[in-house]
Design a protein that fits this description.
This protein has 401 residues and is mainly beta. The chain has seven helices and 23 strands. The chain is globular, with a radius of gyration of 22 Å. Bound molecules: the ligand Nc1nc2c(c(=O)[nH]1)N[C@H]1C(S)=C(S)[C@@H](COP(=O)(O)O)O[C@H]1N2 and molybdenum atom.
């Protein structure tokens, strides 16, 4: 048991509020949750079907096939949204679920919210991208020859959904957050994460109070439907612009602390380590970075003398996208792509570019996004041992014949 868990149990034992048993909801059929369709292969730990044309299974995770997003709109349908699970999706029941807010940063004792109580608070709806810190990690190795530990994602560890829920700030105020609070740490109700024989406890990561009170939401809907099991049913945290790990799924309790909090997810993981960083690593990661990609499988064969409509997406966690350039000759000449969406914060833009190749043979397509804060994708991403925040231009090999 982690110290946090131990002190939670002590707190709850002292105060006649939430029985812990009610939070650690056992697997139970949840009638109101979306039914799981039966077609397609599955992976242990993920509830929804993962058809191979839409997903690549990587350990306990499922990567969305980025090229297959070509025929989706700005919102990623649940059937195509990537899943990143440290262990396995817990199938929870909203009627026995509750959220406990506790800790030294409250003015009084712990507060408990049932699902229905949360639903009665004012709701907000936000279009927000969730992107794993390691999205694009495999390109450190394939494009730059840099080793990187962790899931070998290509570009499909991102999705954009319309989330509906309550403001975390409203919940924290109802719970009596004090002016002395500094950190807020949500924990998931999925199983403890055990790696290399060490139990790291519940998946959890602290947020500074300023971010927690700013734009974070506790979401109970995704694209107009109850949150699917794999994406955090019944309630998850959504932290706009930050690395995916901040958006804790299946949230069961939130510690509000008068002292800085830590967990392995801000000390050992989700920091930048390596020769370009200080010996103890960078500060814990907050924002994601800038990326763009073609919705085209590598090694696609295209006919010469015909006009092809190249499409892709571009996004930045710093600011809305300003423009996207593309090259069809390996990065020598560049042209502007046409943006198909209004650039928005925390969202991507779809773009398209006509290409009529004349020369046959193999070439590389590249795209390069620039955002409204002036960030542009570099040619090379500064490596870090765990392969986070890949931001360089990605080269897509194609053959013209
Ligand atoms: N409880 C819990 N929350 C979690 C995780 C997890 O394993 N358990 N994975 C995190 C990581 S690393 C990412 S990238 C996102 C992925 O969200 P998704 O599976 O809904 O796409 O959830 C985050 N929240
Ligand atoms: Mo992640």
């Amino acid at each position: 048991m982690t110290p946090a868990r131990r002190s939670l149990l002590k707190l709850l034992a002292a105060a006649p509020v939430a029985p812990v048993a009610a939070q650690i909801a056992a697997a139970a059929p949840a009638a109101a949750a979306p039914p799981a369709p039966s077609a397609g292969p599955t992976v242990p730990g993920i509830v929804k079907p993962l058809p191979p044309e839409l997903f690549t299974v990587r350990g306990t995770n499922a990567e969305a096939n980025f090229a297959a997003l070509r025929d989706t709109g700005r919102h990623t349908p649940v059937e195509r949204f990537f899943v990143r699970n440290h262990t396995a999706t817990p199938v929870l029941d909203k009627s026995s679920w509750s959220l406990t807010v506790w800790g030294s940063g409250l003015r009084g004792g712990p507060a408990r919210f049932t699902y229905d109580q949360l639903r009665r608070l004012p709701s907000v709806t936000r279009d927000v991208a969730i992107e794993c810190a390691g999205n694009g990690r495999s390109y450190y190795t394939s494009q730059q020859g840099d080793a990187a530990t962790g899931t070998a994602w290509t570009l499909g560890a991102i999705g954009v959904a319309r989330w509906r829920g309550v403001r975390l700030s409203d919940v924290l105020r109802h719970a009596g957050i004090g002016a002395h609070a500094v950190d807020v740490m949500p924990s998931g109700l999925d199983a403890d994460y055990v790696t290399e024989g060490v139990n790291l406890g519940r998946v959890r990561r602290p947020l500074p109070v300023a971010k927690a009170l700013d734009d974070v939401i506790l979401a109970y809907e995704m694209n107009g439907e109850p949150l699917p099991y794999d994406h955090g049913y019944p309630v998850r945290v959504v932290v706009p612009s930050w690395v995916g790990i901040a958006s804790i799924k299946w949230v069961g309790d939130i510690e509000v602390s008068a002292e800085p909090l830590s967990s392995p997810w801000n000390t050992d993981f989700y920091r930048l380590f390596g020769p370009s960083y200080p010996p103890g690593g960078s500060a814990p990661l907050t924002r994601q970075t800038i990326k763009s990609g073609f919705e085209l499988a590598p090694d696609t064969v295209l006919a010469a003398g015909r006009t092809h409509r190249l499409t892709g997406r571009a996004w930045s966690a710093h600011a809305p996208v300003r423009h996207v350039e593309f090259s069809t000759d390996g990065g020598i000449r560049w042209q502007r792509a046409q943006l198909r969406d209004t650039p928005l914060r925390n969202n991507w833009v779809r773009w398209s570019a006509p290409w009529r190749p004349h020369t046959t043979g193999r070439t590389h397509l590249l795209a390069r996004a620039t955002d409204m804060a002036g960030n542009t994708q570099p040619e090379r991403s500064v490596p870090n041992t765990q392969g986070y925040l890949f931001d360089a231009m990605i080269r897509v090999p194609v053959t013209v014949n």
